[in-house]
């Protein structure tokens, strides 16, 4: 791109809009030359004879999309960010509203529009950042740090408020609530994995194993031993944590890729054991009719079983299946927030700081008297424990568990959320969970193109934000109120 | 003479089949600055690392304050009153100066952290100015200061410095060495300095060992070694 710029700039003294236009026309001509024969001519089997059909509309529309896409790009490259946004928005709107003859053209138009807008935003942010770096002495650095903190906190609280209010919104039907529960479950898992991957820097590809341990522990405890959710929860967490230690002990002396491979294997082992140990786990049939969570003893049901009061009777409401979903949503919200606050707190304690130091430099840690094995084990165990909690929750909401739910794809999804969010950033992980789970849900209408969009999104984010959405790492200690010292230092 | 604070006896260590230390004896007394000089690959850093447990010594003993610490794990040794500024500084790049210093204090009572921090900032005013800056954004000299300050946060009785002059401009090296001299003179800190920059090291230290091929080739007071023809020819050429 930089090359194209430097070539175009001296050769063409045209005003930027005209130059962009020229650029777009050229590209459209190339597109015409290519799509004309490839897309425009279609062989049709007409009663045993092959005839050639012309598809003028599709070709013309395709060229129009290419033209506008390139025009927007060219405008952006010449520093005209706003018009570029405009073209992007136009493409998006056109994509959604116009009656396209082919679904693919529609997807192309929308995707091109989104790409233009995202690219524009990314470019502007980058520019602003370079400018900030160029004129950032210490003091402004500290100010920027404080501002960033404020914005992060504000955004965090806004998201929390939105989550709390979500079930009360008029549009909150059971589909929305189920999606929200899914998003929150993944957010909790990703926050848990963030401790292992983001803070301690240990690449764990088998995180879903601990999720499975939690889910099966709850299922068996509640079905066969009559445990309630709250009674089973700590046991599930403890069991998952001990599995974490069990795996961690022999494995944590490995580094990087080796650790990743072994954890990947561990995840698969757990799944395959569950699949084959039929007498214990029900094998591929899984465990069904797991007791559903009640509202502290009051079940969510239309009609109460013998001698029990249901939730809606207790509060004198009309029965609605939404009640259960709302309760589940708040429950997972609270569980996820526990993980979040725990992480925020522990980052400021010696253990948490040691995790981050370990991620930075293990040799230095040893030279400072930190026991790397124990430090890693605590990270592993605590991460596993939270997965165990989430697993229990999953089992009670689904009332059915089977090895199907704990495939490597789940581990990969959770890891993708952590990496995309910016490893170690709590807010980034939350945003990424909403983005990944929410967007795959939102694009469900695109059917088979859904994964295409998902992949495209991942690639784009990795290109523009290679260290994740929010790569910024908040310091765990800042000395405030010592500005006078700073000033004195600067003056000296 | 009192017993030495640190006594290394016949220490041997290898990396796989290659023996890097072939029986090294070193003694360090309380309050001294002792330097270990030698060419690249002489085994200087290996000696320092091996007495800290990694690579594990294959023979010989390391005795610190009358206690045999041979073959203990590194993190264990670092809790006994020894601190280390490792080769290549190894500060935590994404953590701030303040966080780096906190990491240095993990093995001590957090109650005197503020006091120790104040002392570190008096020693290195530059670090105070940059306390909220990320370690990775510091200059090389500042990073070295941070590495030393971080090591001192654990209130050690013996400070091990591995090549503090590595990759630094001469004027910065002089500053760093001046601080080491002050730490020794004012706080009575015992310092074991591994250096390639023989001239500066000998100027600073009270006594010195010359390591070559995994063995101590020569030892004596710094003045003696500075005057020694062989040392001059081998390590001080280049005219200082």
What is the count of distinct domains of chain A?
Answer: 2
Average pLDDT, all residues of chain A: 82
- Biggest β-sheet description of chain B: 6 strands, mixed
Ranges of chain A where pLDDT stays below 50 over 5 or more residues in a row are 1-10, 480-492
Determine the fraction of residues in helical runs of chain B and give it as a percent range: 25-40%
How far apart, in Å, are the first and last alpha carbons of chain A? 45 Å
* Biggest sheet overview of chain A: 2 strands, antiparallel
The radius of gyration of chain B is 17 Å
Low-confidence stretches of chain B: none
Tally of separate domains of chain B: 1
In percent, how helical is the residue content of chain A? Answer: over 70%
Number of strands of chain B: 10
Percent of residues in β-strands of chain B: 25-35%
- Give the full name of the CATH homologous superfamily of chain B: P-loop containing nucleotide triphosphate hydrolases
Please provide the ordered H/E string of secondary-structure elements of chain A.
HHEEHHHHHHHHHHHHHHHHHH
Query: Which percent band covers the strand fraction of chain A?
Result: under 5%
Write the layout of secondary structure elements.
The complex is a heterodimer of chains A (492) and B (240).
Chain A: H1 2-11, H2 16-40, E1 41-46, E2 49-54, H3 56-77, H4 81-97, H5 103-134, H6 138-165, H7 174-199, H8 208-224, H9 229-251, H10 256-276, H11 278-281, H12 311-314, H13 322-346, H14 350-360, H15 362-367, H16 372-398, H17 408-421, H18 426-442, H19 450-464, H20 483-491
Antiparallel strand pairs in A: 1-2
Helix pairs in contact in A: 2-3, 3-4, 3-5, 4-5, 7-13, 7-16, 7-17, 7-18, 8-9, 8-10, 8-16, 9-16, 13-16, 14-16, 17-18
Chain B: E1 6-15, E2 18-28, E3 33-38, H1 44-51, E4 59-64, E5 67-68, H2 74-77, E6 82-85, H3 97-104, H4 113-123, H5 125-129, H6 140-152, E7 158-162, H7 170-187, E8 190-195, H8 198-204, E9 207-212, E10 215-221, H9 222-227, H10 229-235
Helix pairs in contact in B: 3-6
């Amino acid at each position: 791109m930089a090359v194209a710029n430097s070539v175009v700039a001296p050769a063409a003294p045209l005003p930027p809009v005209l130059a962009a236009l020229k650029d777009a026309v050229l590209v459209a001509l190339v597109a015409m030359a290519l799509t004309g024969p490839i897309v425009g001519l279609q062989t049709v089997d007409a009663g045993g004879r092959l005839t050639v059909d012309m598809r003028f509309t599709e070709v013309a529309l395709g060229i129009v999309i290419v033209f506008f896409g390139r025009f927007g790009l060219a405008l952006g490259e010449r520093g005209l960010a706003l018009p570029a946004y405009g073209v992007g928005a136009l493409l998006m709107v056109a994509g959604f509203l116009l009656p396209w003859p082919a679904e693919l053209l529609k997807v192309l138009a929308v995707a091109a529009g989104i790409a233009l807008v995202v690219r524009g935003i990314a470019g502007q942010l980058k520019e602003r950042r370079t400018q900030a770096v160029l004129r950032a002495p210490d003091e402004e650095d500290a100010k920027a740090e404080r501002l960033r903190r404020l914005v992060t906190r504000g955004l965090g609280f806004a998201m929390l408020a939105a989550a709390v209010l979500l079930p009360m919104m008029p549009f909150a039907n059971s589909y929305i609530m189920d999606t929200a529960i899914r998003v929150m479950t993944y957010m909790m898992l990703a926050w848990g994995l963030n401790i292992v991957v983001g803070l301690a820097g240990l690449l764990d590809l088998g995180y879903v194993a601990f999720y499975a341990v939690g889910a099966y522990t709850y299922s068996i405890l509640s079905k066969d031993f009559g445990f309630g959710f709250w009674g089973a929860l700590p046991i599930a967490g403890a069991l998952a944590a001990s599995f974490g230690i069990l795996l961690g002990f022999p494995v944590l002396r490995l580094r990087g890729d080796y650790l990743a491979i072994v954890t990947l294997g561990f995840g698969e082992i757990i799944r395959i054991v569950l699949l084959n140990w039929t007498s214990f786990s029900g094998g591929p049939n899984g465990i069904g009719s797991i007791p559903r969570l009640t509202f502290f003893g009051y079940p969510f049901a239309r009609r109460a079983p013998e001698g029990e009061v249901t939730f809606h009777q207790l509060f004198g409401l009309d029965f609605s299946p939404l009640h259960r979903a709302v309760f589940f949503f708040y429950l997972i919200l609270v569980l996820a927030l526990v993980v979040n606050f725990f992480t925020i707190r522990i980052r400021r304690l010696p253990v948490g700081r040691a995790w981050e130091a370990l991620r930075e430099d293990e040799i230095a840690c040893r030279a400072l008297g930190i026991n790397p094995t124990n430090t890693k084990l605590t990270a592993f165990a605590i991460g596993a424990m939270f997965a165990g909690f989430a697993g229990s929750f999953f089992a009670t909401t689904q009332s059915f568990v089977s090895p199907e739910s704990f495939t490597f794809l789940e581990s990969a999804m959770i890891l993708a959320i952590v990496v995309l969010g910016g490893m170690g950033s709590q807010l980034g992980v939350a945003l990424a969970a909403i983005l990944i789970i929410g967007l795959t849900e939102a694009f469900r209408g695109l059917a088979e193109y859904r994964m295409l969009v998902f992949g495209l999104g991942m690639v784009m984010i990795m290109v523009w934000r290679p260290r994740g959405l929010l790569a910024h790492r908040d310091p765990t200690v800042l000395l405030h109120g010592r500005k006078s010292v700073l000033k004195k230092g600067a003056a000296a | 003479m009192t017993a030495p604070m640190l006594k290394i006896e016949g220490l041997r260590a290898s990396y796989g089949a290659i023996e890097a230390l072939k029986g090294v004896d070193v003694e360090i007394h309380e309050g001294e600055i002792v330097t270990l000089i030698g060419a690249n690959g002489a085994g200087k850093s290996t000696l320092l690392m091996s007495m800290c447990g990694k690579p594990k010594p294959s023979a010989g003993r390391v005795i610190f304050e009358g206690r045999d610490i041979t073959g203990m794990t590194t993190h264990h040794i670092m809790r006994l009153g020894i601190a280390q500024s490792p080769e290549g500084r190894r500060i935590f790049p994404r953590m701030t100066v303040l966080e780096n210093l906190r990491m240095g204090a993990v093995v001590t009572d957090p109650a005197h952290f503020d006091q120790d921090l104040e002392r570190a900032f008096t020693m290195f005013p530059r670090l105070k100015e940059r306390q909220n800056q990320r370690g990775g954004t510091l200059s090389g000299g500042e990073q070295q200061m941070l590495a030393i300050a971080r090591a001192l946060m654990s209130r050690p009785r013996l400070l091990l410095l591995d090549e503090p002059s590595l990759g630094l401009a001469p004027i910065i090296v002089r500053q760093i060495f001046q601080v080491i001299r002050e730490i020794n003179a004012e706080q009575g800190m015992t310092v074991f300095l591994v250096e390639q920059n023989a001239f500066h090291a000998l100027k600073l230290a009270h006594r010195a060992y010359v390591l070559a091929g995994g063995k101590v080739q020569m030892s004596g007071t710094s003045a003696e070694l500075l005057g020694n023809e062989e040392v001059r020819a081998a390590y001080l050429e280049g005219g200082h």
